[in-house]
Amino acid sequence: MMGRDPNMAAEHFKAWLLERHGKGTRLRQTRLCETELDDGDVLLQVAYASITRRDALACCAQEVASRRLPCVPGGDLVAQVLASAAPRFQPGDWVFASGYGIGSKHHGAYAERALLPGGWLLPVPEKLDALSAISLGGSGLAVAMALTQLEDNGLKPERGPVLVTGAGGSNGSLAVTLLAARGYEVCALTRQAENSQWLKDLGASRVLLYGDLHLDAIQPLARGVWAGAVDNLGGNVLGWILGSSKPGAAVVALGDVLGSAVNLSLAPMVARGVSVLGVDSAQAGFATKHKAWIRLAGDLHSDKLRLLYRMVGFEEIPLMCTQLLNGVSRGRTVVRIADSGG
Question: The whole model's pTM is what?
Answer without folding.
Answer: 0.86
